[in-house]
Amino acid sequence: MPSINRRTLLAGAAATGALAAATTKAQGETVPSPPDLSGQAILITGCSSGFGRLSAVHFAELGAKVFATMRNLPRAEAEELEKLAAEKNLDLHVIELDVLDDEMVLAAVAEAERINGGPMDVLVNNAGIGITGPVEVQDMEATKLAFDTNVFGYHRLVRAVLPGMRSRKSGHIFSISSQLGRVIIPYGGHYSATKFAVEAMGEQLAYELVPHNIEVTVIEPGGYPTKVWVNRNRYSGELKDRADGVHTSGYPQVVARMGQEDGSGRSADPMDVPRAMARVLAMPAGTRPVRVPVSGGSIPQAAINEVCARTQVDWLGGSPFLGPLVKAVHD
């Protein structure tokens, strides 16, 4: 087996403990100076709003060549982003990409690689949706859409970029998960189920890509005031309108609130997320964490991250074939 890089897990690792504090503003930590991302080619999904758009601009301002993708072009959000890039002289390219479309994913990655003159250095799997309500109320239309976007969409992008990354033995993949990928709130639809899948897929990739010197970081944001609330209300409202009374009758108070969520009370800065990813990229290869909680408040998943890492090492660490992979990630 090729030589294995040493990696660290956020929970319990001194090298990345400072990163956790820096991404949790409630702890009062000073945000460090922005890193230099010059020379990095970064493809990001879901750049019409929220973390995706903020990350595209932030990374480009730090010197990266950014490929900001979104669906349904032409659209005002793409024009605004291109105008901003021109005004600031940013190396930012808007490409159409719908994470639900296999062919469009392959075409978008190929176009980004053509413009870049080579493979991507970084993939940020960010595009996602939420549809709230009791699990019983989630019909198959909502269920398939949630998993196709939040899980299969990530998988499509990973498969598209990995051949290029492996060809040159380097790369980094970010998967935007959630606190709700480790802890569960009742009546959240299948959101936690999809994000639990993102967590598992990201960690498995981290093990399997050790021999290729490609690292994976799962970002676990808390609640932030992004446009996700607007989209979530639309999807949840549509589900409520078509839901069958045989299922909704068991949860009248919950169903009444579907499509009426209000994220305006959240005051945390959504820039926490792109700043956290930029700091991870500034860390030396081989020391980047596999999970980074990012929150304006508590991080309840930290204990789960720690015990899961310990369990993986205790269970598989002694295996001559799998042990080195697991230990390399959970050093």
CATH topology term: Rossmann fold
Largest sheet: 7 strands, parallel
Low-confidence parts? 1-18, 20-26
Distance between the termini: 18 Å
Task: Specify the helix fraction band.
Answer: 40-55%
Name the CATH superfamily assignment: NAD(P)-binding Rossmann-like Domain
Global morphology: globular
**Overall average residue pLDDT:** 91
The CATH architecture can be given as 3-Layer(aba) Sandwich
The order of strands across the largest sheet is 3-2-1-4-5-6-7
| Name of the CATH first level | Alpha Beta
Number of helices: 12
Quickly describe the structure.
The protein has 331 residues and is α/β, with parallel strands linked by helices.
What does this structure look like?
- This protein has 331 residues and is of the alpha/beta class.
- It has a single domain (14-329), classed as NAD(P)-binding Rossmann-like Domain (Rossmann fold), CATH 3.40.50.
- The protein is 46% helix and 11% strand.
- The protein has 12 helices and 7 strands.
- The chain has helices at 14-22, 50-61, 76-88, 102-116, 140-167, 191-208, 228-242, 245-248, 252-257, 272-282, 302-316, 323-329, and strands spanning 41-44, 65-70, 92-96, 122-125, 171-176, 214-221, 291-294.
- The chain has a 7-stranded parallel beta sheet, sandwiched between helices.
- Residues 1-18 and 20-26 have low confidence and may be disordered.
Which key terms come to mind for this protein?
Rossmann fold; seven-stranded parallel sheet; disordered N terminus; 7 strands; 46% helix; 12 helices; alpha/beta; 331 residues
